[in-house]
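Justification of resources, computational component.

The compute hours requested in this renewal are based largely on the per-chain cost of generating structure records like the one below. Each record pairs the submitted sequence with a full structure-token output. That output is archived, and it is also reused by downstream analysis tasks.
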Amino acid sequence: MSNQELVVLGQDAEGCCPTLLTAPMAEDQAVDLAKVFKALGDPVRLRLLSIIASRAGGEICVCDLTPAFDLSQPTISHHLKLLKQAGLIASERRGTWVYYRPLPETTDKLAAVLTGPGSVVAAASAEPAGAAS
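The structure output for this chain reads:
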């Protein structure tokens, strides 16, 4: 008997869910993902997530986020709240400051849904430009 793991076609390596290129998305999954994409649809929120996710140590204090933007502290807090509601970040209060960290399970899920099967990407890149079938 082989020790190799079987991969079900149309699913990512984790067996989680079909990608956009392999099967139509279920309505409830589309609703959930739309909330996350809506949260990422704002340049400030996208930058906030990038700053938080790229921080050494995996977390950052809100006091270090605010100076990176030409926005008021309440506006930054509002954007952080929306990222948190979308499940992209988590927070922890320590004294008077709040520390934020990314939630990789959400970003990994987004990556899995957006990633096409290897054969589709490989076939598209292997075909010379302008080649006709």
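The first strand starts at residue 60 and ends at 61. The longest helix spans residues 27-40.
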